Amino acid sequence: MKLVREYGLVAVLGALIGAFGLLSPVFLTAENLLNIVDQVAIIGFVALGMTVVILTGGIDLSVGSTVAFTGIIFAESLVRGFGLSASMLLCVASGLVVGALNGFLIAHVGLPAFIVTLGTMGAARGASLYITDGRAVSGLPASVGGLASTDIAGLSLPAALFLCLTLLTWAVLKFTYWGKFIYAIGGNERAAWLSGIAVERYKMMVYVAAGFGCAVSGAILVSKLNSAQPQAGNMYELNAIAAVVLGGASLAGGRGDATGTFLGVMILGVLQNGFSLLNVSSYYQQMMLGAILIAAVYADKKSLRGALDD
Amino acid sequence: MTRMKTAVAVPVILTVAVGVFLLCRSCGSKPADEAKTRRIAFVVPVLDNPFFVDMTNAAKERAAQMPGVEVIVKASTSVEDAIGQSQMVEDLITQRVDAICIVPTNSEGIIPAIRKANAAGIPVINIDNKIDEAKASAAGASVDAYIGSDNFDGGRLAGEYVAQRLGGRGKVAILEGVSGNDAAIKRKAGFLEALKASPGIEVVASQVANWNREQAFNIFQNLMRATPDLNAVFACNDEMILGAAAALGQSKTARETIVMVGFDATTEAVEAVHSGKIDATIAQQPKLMGKQGLELALDVLAKRPTPRSVSTELKVISR
Question: What ipTM does the predicted assembly reach?
């Protein structure tokens, strides 16, 4: 069954690539295809984190604000002369802190994920605006701007990093106890707890992982724009959830994986790029994104009911 | 079995739907003569602001008068979407458009994308919101020309108008644009500069409403509550002054007690001036900018000598 779904996604992606290739003479150029992977990476990091959160049956609405917040921390540290590695560490640390806060409130205090992350979504955005006084942070060393365009075996750094992190997430979920416990918690949290899994600890860890993904995304975004905007990452939660769900994950938890999310991210990226090349208005793109999300959830619901029928 | 069917059916339906949608579009549009057509892209922040609609429509109208010129309009769905705008420019470079006229969402964030256009040899005309030139040259990026009004002068015109209407005394509020936006900073600075000549005028509030009518509505409602004896408000664009005017209209405060000044002279705002809903707006000329932008881009392509900077005139429109 899982195979069929993934083949379905690969087929959609292939069909979209074929269709856009026929309609736009530049779509299938190497330059453009590399561009797509480069462009989706930013939302990709966030979506990978979102995947593990959704696997436990949770949700993280704070990702977009966290991307902005970690980016601001990265840029502010650079401007204050901390140097590249130290600033990166601070950036990642700030992402982990937001994630840990989410995780603590959800796993240990037992508050609903939707509410907690809605709260941190507002708080992280407010903090970004407060730190920067609403202005973009600029005047970054030239080395930062070069980072995002670093070439790694023909891929840009963001693209290469996205592929690596997808692989890592896939491997962790598939081959480690950590991964198996996460599926178990998402499948039936009480059963997982009864069988001795430290549910709180693992639930906390998935939000920390999501925070890590946001920090990577935030740093790359800063590098791409050579400045940090407090308003960055707007609507990323919607795009990330859309990619994860499109990739076959169930919002109820327990089902989904990194390769599905990768395909989901790619499908959204190909749609966006293809529409852009064909000069289809971005308003259509938003409508299409909404329709696709609903279609994917519909498919999910139908296949779940099918599972019960079988 | 049902599961298999849906799992296959939904992606297939989806793909077919997208395909049909795209085919319909491509059938509808006439096949352009790719070899001869010069394609000029206009990248503006959003199209839910009439200012950019006027600008891009004027460019399209001008293009329609010239053989072999096509205008491609690109806009994002949010005025804060800096990365989205960069990606649009990247896509335009991939499409090998002949020139790009751009109103940057963010004066700095756009610089890496402009550098890529430079590297691809595609001329870039900067309209309205000016890129940060010092940082651009430090990053090795440049634009071929800049077209815009001097926002500082416009702000000063607004300040002088308010000072004159108030007779040099009173309480004034400012509704600001998106923080860090060049136009937002300069309009406010020009306005404050003009008020320096009238020490009897006090600026009681200056708040960010992000160029947005709805936000301005809410903020102005609060402002009126906080300062019941407010005498004037200057909004850094027309959308915001129209939002403030709507809030004033719903309140018990009489329309005549507050002098309301906007900026941009959009069609709706000019009508509002004539009907007395607002007092004045500063006229930038988006249509002229669009037309000039297109012509400059074509001049650069034809290697005709072009000015580095074109200043589009401003004026106060009042009743």
Answer: 0.75
